[in-house]
Amino acid sequence: MQYFVQQLINGLTLGSIYGLIAIGYTMVYGIIGMINFAHGDIFMVGAFTALIVFLILGAMFYSVPVVLALLIMMIVAMLLTSLYNWTIEKVAYRPLRGSFRLAPLITAIGMSIALSNFVQVTQGPRNKPIPPMVSKVYNIEGISVSLKQIIIVVVTALLLALFWYLVNKTSLGRAQRACEQDRKMAALLGIDVDRTISITFIMGAALAAVAGTLFLMYYGVIAFSDGFVPGVKAFTAAVLGGIGSLPGAVLGGLMIGFIESMWSAYFSIDYKDVAAFSILAIVLIFLPSGILGRPEVEKV
Amino acid sequence: MAVTVSPERDVVATPVQRAFREALYAGAIALGLFVLFIGLKTDQNISNELILVQRWGLLAIVVIATAVGRFLYVAYGQPFMANQKIADVATGLLPDSVATRFFRLPYFIAAIVIAALLLVLASSLDGLLGPGLAGYARFVRALAIIYALASVLFYFRAFIHAHFSALGIAALALYPIIVVLSLALYGGSIAAGFQGSLKWVDNFGIQILIYVMLAWGLNIVVGLAGLLDLGYVAFYAVGAYAYALLGTQYGLSFWILLPAAGAMAAFWGVLLGFPVLRLRGDYLAIVTLAFGEIIRLVLINWREVTNGSAGISGIPKVTFFGLMTFNVSDPNYIAKVLNIATSSAYYKIFLYYLILGLCLLTAFVTIRLRRMPVGRAWEALREDEIACRSLGINTTTTKLTAFATGAMFGGFAGSFFAARQGFVSPESFVFLESAIILAIVVLGGMGSLVGIAVAALVMIGGTEVLRELDFLKQVFGPDFTPELYRMLLFGMAMVIVMLWKPRGFVGSREPTAFLKERRAVSSSFTKEGHG
Fold first, then answer.
1. Looking at B46, B62, B93, which one is the last position of a domain?
2. What is the per-residue pLDDT across B161-182, written as a single tens digit (0 to 9) for each?
3. Interface membership of B298 toward A (CB under 8 Å)
4. How many structural domains comprise chain B?
5. Min Cα–Cα distance to chain A from B282, Å
6. B443 in contact with A at a CB cutoff of 8 Å?
7. Which of these, A89, A52, A56, lies nearest to A213 by C-alpha position?
8. pTM of the entire predicted model
9. Is residue B372 in a domain?
10. Domain housing B65
11. B81 and B171 both lie in a single domain
12. ipTM > 0.85, yes or no
């Protein structure tokens, strides 16, 4: 039982990170109906920015309180990563909006390749380890919960609450939902569609940057190629939850996290990704539009 | 870079003013993007701690280059391109196209003279100019030769357009012979010709043709049936491992295993096809992606059979249809049988013709299938699945045959790949490969065999050329390795080509069924599937 709860906590931590990335996928998909393949690499850029900010802080000050350091890393990463995603949307996706469906998918894959190789060329191909930032571990009745895990879950929960408020209660969120339902009609009603889409990309990137910072803090290492696997898992999570649905993305993220940690704990660590992907395939056979997704209504 | 400004301000501003403003924006954005990534570099010091190296000079260069580039584009590039579309008032003609202005007889003669001069001086270049300038001279020579060839192609463009397939096949069939002969002339002996041809036949010829074959195979699934497949590399892997395992374990010949590998890959294609029959669009995409990853992860982790990440080596070579072999130690070695000098180039040239034959087989089957009921059903499925079902087409078998046929060609290409490398490992079958193949299909214009071949030539050939650009070391210093920028440029090229031609190189379609005469369907009328 203890072992099970332990795995549950590990899965929750992992799932939070996947959920944060998955929201970026699902929002972009909801609003312009494209798979933003570069999102995983946006996450990696976020983590790398956090790493560089961490090193700058280390070089400039003798000691910085950990909370403050994390906050600064997160904020700078959010700003710069948003700038990346904003630029990518302007350069690579906007000119192809309304073009045929595979065109933005290919530019997204191209951007993904370009981003990870840009980081490789400028920062070098090696793994970049940092000293552990937070090392405290609590022991509650034989279950060890590290402070890192608590930070991750708390930050994710706070962000999700903020995000829920933004999407459901503000005029910006209303504009986003309107664009999602009918872009042309929204434009006719005076919503600046381009701006709304840009903001969606910025929000997705900001969440990915937070996920990147938390990932760096949790694992203490990042490399240029680290965007792909979490990106694919988060995308899987978004599809599993029903792409286009925000609660679905979080739910899918948590599910992928649980499947992974349970499978590594009880079966074999080698096949944890195989398990996650197989469960995706099985779920989609029975629920072809994900768990919380709306079935696509086909108009003839 | 593509900073859009509100149209009201554009009316007032002159192009140069506007360009200046946009250059400032672009510079500011570039500064934001690159300040941490180019301005600083994370490096390990001796005690393995990360330290930051400052590179502000490089950052300034990149930012200024971005701003200047944007300025030139907005101030001169955009007006120039707009002018190209405006007909002259007096004559009613469009201005000379860039191409006719670029390819002119005097330029052509100049290029020929430069190329000939530098070819004659080839051996004494280093002595005359010193090693630094000689590098540039070789680059100029390459440019001159390319320009001359391009001019010839441009001059005969109507003829080439009319007989494209025949000319293309002839050029491909003659390619190794031309390479060997011209290098033999250049090097002075037949042996030198064979030795020098290795790189050209292997790195350029075989490498590009493998991608052509893979892309043509994927084209059946994506281009014809309209099913978005992001895990095509899985079938490539199945074919490669089928040959590698059966060839090394049981010593079976390539000629038996080639169809076996194709059949096995087709079987896996059906196996993948079943669960995804109900899925559409992006759900299909993610499940195929997951399938590709599952195959790769199983190859990595099933160590007892696949030897894990270490891969399988010592894969037997292809024999010359069982008559001769390409193993030097074998009594049936081709050079001993034919009584010619030993060279490793024979095998490469043989492989070149083998993959060319496989490519032509793929093209032939695709063209013939398009005219058969099953091919028409694929294309109908791509255009409209509901209409397809209403007309009584069995979408299940249609989808499954598309997956199986596409996968079979992937399997053929895979077993060829294993035979060519002599070594396979899961490293070769990552998602990036699927993405590259899909990119080639889309860039070529989905469904068009010629367009796909051109896209493969441009994208794969282009990245291979980067390996040859040694002269860049003289510009950027000896530490500069052009190969490092290969994938970065590949990704950017994907974006740029897609923005330039969203429908791919050949966007129009040739109908398979027509009344009286065949007319190409313009790209704006063609549709693509929804999976």
1. B93
2. 778 888 888 888 888 888 888 8
3. yes
4. 2
5. 8
6. yes
7. A52
8. 0.87
9. yes
10. 7-93
11. no
12. yes
